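Chain A, query sequence.
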Amino acid sequence: ASTSPLSLLRRLVAGDIVLHNLTVVEGWRFEDFLNALRKHPAIVPGTDDPATIMAKLGAEGVHPEGQFFPDTYSFPRGTTDLDVLRQARDTMATVLETIWSQRQTLILNNAYEALILASIIEKETALGSERHQISGVFSRRLERHMRLETDPTVIYGLGEMFDGDIRAADLATDTPYNTYRRFGLPPTPISLPGLASLRAAVEPDDGETLFFVATGEPDGSHYFSASLEEHNAAVARYLERLRSQN
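Chain A, predicted structure.
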């Protein structure tokens, strides 16, 4: 009410408006992103259909998973969900193009495969120190035509059937995403990977390790092994640790 015409004009010229924020978290699924958009009070909602969304973004037929970059986005009240989605998708396209141009791996055939691998790495560890190690394990398994055998892909394939605990029956359930039963990468990403996981996907560590399992430590770290015997021993230690904790 106290703003003068001149001060208002200055604010308009400077673009001095109230901006709202939405943080897209690394490792979210596309569905999580949509839920956050729906709940944001400053965003005007639109369609919830993923196929329609991708068509409106000029990517008809493209699977939405992994196509949006996790970051904090700022916008004025009244921004549509499609505007935020377009900004996140354009950012991912730019980042992925840059990352792929700097690749140090020969096992991946294209940038989309790097995006898929990065999405798995994102779900496997929250430790920056482990991402390149895990990328190295997966790269060597792909190179040797071994199954990836990674739980997050199985969980993604189960969808709403997953109840929070992964069981032997789940590992035996065949879906396009079950890397215990199928060779190679899954058909699409399984999450929205961040910059660190994207870099790790194209910069795998050298070495001989082919397996890893959780240590059970509070930091969420993993033990890496080069042989199945060593890996089985690490799994036994992890299970014993769980039993003692319970």
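The beta strands are 20-23, 43-44, 72-75, 79-80, 211-214, 222-225. The mean pLDDT is 94.
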